[in-house]
Amino acid sequence: MLSAAFAVHPAAVAPRLHSVRQRQQFCAPIGTATPRRRLPVAMLSVTNAVTTQSRESAPAAPRKLSFPILVNSCTGKMGKSVAEAAVSAGLQLVPVSFSAIEVPDGKLNICDRDIHIHDPSESERILRSIAKDYPDMIVVDYTVPDAVNANAELYCKLGLPFVMGTTGGNRQLLNKTVQDANVYAVISPQMGKQVVAFLAAMEIMAEKFPGAFAGYKLEVMESHQATKLDVSGTAKAVISCFQKLGVSFDLNEVNLVRDPEEQLAIVGVPEEHLGGHAFHNYHLTSPDETVSFEFQHNVCGRSIYAEGTVDAAMFLHTKIRSGADKKLYDMIDVLREGNMR
């Protein structure tokens, strides 16, 4: 068996799951079933071709940047993580955020900084005023799907560059709003830069070698916190690549694991990350079952997304300073720049 595994969190690598059908366990408890015969494993070593470049052609180390960043909304887990990552990176955290969630004294303390929380109904008035005090400010949006388009319209109306990390909304309208307003923005439903790089590699493989896995059987398992009810956008994108590679697969076949007990005992999610994780496993088997490929990426916590978001904000700041003609970017553009921390 040839196996390619991609794991993000070393302490949280799940066991290889070769049977991931919906509403079935991925493996039986010890001693209750006869072990399946496993094929010899030969791990593929994936080497970055960039290492062959000379030192002269390698990208320069990123410059130390400092600029104001406003995180909307800091009361959410993702927004709070981004705010902490921004402070750690040396950025100036604007002491204002918006949320319908009430907090004691209307303030939230993040990294020893008091962030004043305002109701979203006040966002236009306050943002207009704040923009005068922080002329180089970049807004990061981690709110709710229903607010995506309205928030983008407001940022564009005020001429505020922004990073949209919130998923959902009308994405076509979102892009059109930015393009019509000619405002700088990074828009991506996936801010984990390493996951984005993996997706980009999958898309390249699908484009270059269509039909390479024709006839292969695909099994997909994805485990997320119990509050996430739908199939992850990342899984949908990877599955789309496999379909282009010739695999027949329907999204209804994805094994969604949302039960904490199964996540602990079967998937291998650390208990402290049950409330925030993303474990994905894609298993391919040849028609005669003599060859199999396995792709896996496990994310615990939110730091990978927070760090990627801060990189996106830094990227956008440099584009604004340089007066770049292009205004609308995604995380692939950030990756191509090559100057991430």
Automatic annotation (TrEMBL):
Coiled coil regions in record: none
Organism encoding this protein: Triticum aestivum (Wheat)
Pfam families with a match to the protein in the record: DapB_C, DapB_N
This protein's pathway: Amino-acid biosynthesis; L-lysine biosynthesis via DAP pathway; (S)-tetrahydrodipicolinate from L-aspartate: step 4/4
Protein name as catalogued: 4-hydroxy-tetrahydrodipicolinate reductase
PANTHER family in alphabetical order: 4-HYDROXY-TETRAHYDRODIPICOLINATE REDUCTASE 1, CHLOROPLASTIC-RELATED (PTHR20836:SF0), DIHYDRODIPICOLINATE REDUCTASE (PTHR20836)
GO biological process, alphabetically ordered: diaminopimelate biosynthetic process; lysine biosynthetic process via diaminopimelate
Domain spans labelled Dihydrodipicolinate reductase C-terminal: 195-335
GO cellular component: chloroplast
